[in-house]
Specification:
It is built from 19 helices and 14 strands. The strands form five sheets. It has a five-stranded mixed beta sheet. Strands 4-13-12 form a three-stranded antiparallel beta sheet. A hairpin with a 2-residue loop joins strand 1 and strand 2.
Length: about 500
């Protein structure tokens, strides 16, 4: 009995020592105020329940900068949206350690010469590569749309009513086998080999990524993947990819994957490392799927929005239509000059975004706030901005919880009497593929509106799941069933990589 008591006392002493050594600390002079929290997990429970509500409450109590704790990690949160440019440019707020933490904890690899590789690879989704990437995406999307239209082209049974033309499917699956399939093949191309890996296909990877992604926040904070059996099972399938040399022979392989694969091979990285990096890139593009999901849902929930978007698109088609041609071409500039579609996409992002912009503090840093106050951010901590708190701020956006599809048409937004340069912040400030992703979603919506009638049956409703704040794009609380049918004699839309001289 005495021995047991001694062991318990030693264990308790060790726990107390560990708590004061690795978790507890005193606030230093000039540091931002601390948000009170649980002595073990800090503010994790409140943040997980509803991050925006928790941070807005903390802002009212403590001001535009304060520090929270998630387990043993301290994060200084900057709430003033006018700090975005300064936050992004501060050299002592470093993204590299965060990127390494995600790569290692979530995808199980470390990228050598990471900054150089990411910089060079990022060029492969911008500039002249933007046009070639969009051309490949448009071709892949056209193919999956054609397959759906052919499936619907079977003759109606004799005596069948008009309802026989409609197909019914979950919105998640419909978006997966259209948008996500096109994104997947645009990234990884296609193989002519009959011995291709069976599970390396868009639907399997989407299904497994959907499962794996639910545990993302736990994994990047450092919790072992073995604690989550479903994540373990999913990641085993996600690593069933072609070996690098086989990947490089695939037809239509993206310039990004080709460059990153060759770069990693040259730097002696393993096949496992290359596959892990492929999953990082797919993870980024998975957000494109989620945004598209919410765009389609908003069109279905508000048919009047879809009608307005269809009217804008019809006018654009007629303006570009050449007599005698069944197809209408759009350039990058044409896609960007649809103001209502652009506003609709921004409004969707405003309500569905959950991105956490986190940086590692490399040395004690005095951070100047716009109100003239200066706070010291401690070396070794994390510092973050959380765009959803901006997106849901009633001082910036009137009725922020209401979806207004034309909110961003010729509009300006203000906080503290000063105009916001970036009222909608998504995908993080360092994401090189933001423009490519936005163009993909716009092109997908243009083709969907042009090619299909869509309908949301009575009682089918969902909403963003705020328990997943911290994910780039929030998932739905549950999926919904949708109905769709091809529009007869709709003109085909095709992408024009460059504007022709005559235009």
């Amino acid at each position: 009995m005495v021995a047991v008591t001694v062991y318990l006392a030693l264990a308790a002493t060790a726990l107390v020592f560990a708590y004061f050594r690795f978790v507890f600390r005193f606030r230093r002079e000039n540091e931002a105020p601390y948000v009170p929290g649980h002595f073990l997990w800090g503010n994790g429970a409140e943040f997980a329940q509803n991050a925006v509500r928790f941070l807005h409450k903390s802002q009212k109590a403590l001001g535009d900068i304060f520090t929270i704790r998630l387990l043993n990690q301290y994060l200084t949160i900057v709430m003033d949206p006018h700090c975005y440019e300064k936050f992004s440019k501060e050299r002592r707020f470093d993204f590299d350690p965060i990127q390494k933490q995600v790569n290692n904890n979530v995808f199980g690899f470390e990228l050598k010469s990471a900054r150089k590789m990411i910089y060079e690879a990022g060029k492969k989704v911008n500039g002249r590569y933007l046009g070639t990437g969009m051309e490949a995406f448009a071709a892949n999307l056209q193919e999956v749309f054609r397959n759906i239209q052919q499936q619907n082209a079977n003759p109606k049974p004799e005596g069948a009513g008009d309802d026989a033309q409609w197909q019914s499917e979950g919105l998640r699956m419909l978006t997966s086998r259209t948008l996500f399939s096109a994104v997947f093949y645009t990234i990884f191309g296609k193989s002519a080999s009959v011995q291709d890996i069976p599970d390396f296909n868009p639907q399997t990877f989407h299904d497994k990524f959907d499962t794996f992604h639910k545990f993302f926040n736990y994994l990047w904070l450092g919790m072992p993947v073995k604690l989550f059996p479903k994540a373990c099972d999913a990641v085993k399938v996600l690593f069933q990819q072609p070996l690098s040399q086989d990947m490089l022979t695939r037809d239509g392989l993206s310039d990004y994957i080709r460059f990153s694969t060759e770069y990693m091979l040259q730097h002696g990285q393993s096949e496992q490392d290359i596959m892990g990096h492929n999953l990082v890139f797919l993870h980024v593009n998975y957000n494109t799927f989620r945004v598209a999901y919410w765009c389609v849902y908003q069109m279905l929930e508000h048919p009047e929005f879809c009608q307005d978007l269809a009217h804008e698109l019809k006018e654009a088609i007629e303006a570009r239509r050449v007599e005698g041609d069944d197809a209408v071409g759009f350039t990058l500039e044409d896609i960007d000059h649809l103001p209502l579609l652009d506003s609709f996409l921004k409004e969707t992002l405003r309500l569905a975004s959950g991105v956490f912009m986190v940086r590692y503090v490399t040395e004690d840093t005095d951070f100047d706030m716009p109100n003239g106050e200066t706070y010291t951010v401690r070396k070794g901590d994390r510092v973050a901005m959380y765009p959803p708190t901006i997106h849901m701020d009633p001082e910036i956006f009137e009725n922020p919880e209401t979806f207004k599809h034309d909110r961003f048409v010729n509009a300006k937004f203000y906080k503290y009497g000063k105009e916001l340069k970036n009222p909608v912040l998504t995908f993080g400030s360092l994401c090189p593929g933001k423009r490519f992703s936005m163009l993909q979603i716009k092109w997908f919506l243009m083709n969907l509106i042009n090619s299909f009638d869509l309908h949301l049956p009575e009682g089918e409703r969902t909403q963003p799941n705020t328990e997943y704040y911290g994910h780039e794009i929030l998932p739905p609380t549950h999926d919904v069933k949708v109905q769709f049918r091809p529009i007869p004699d709709a003109p085909a839309l095709f992408f024009v990589p460059r504007r022709s001289p005559r235009s």
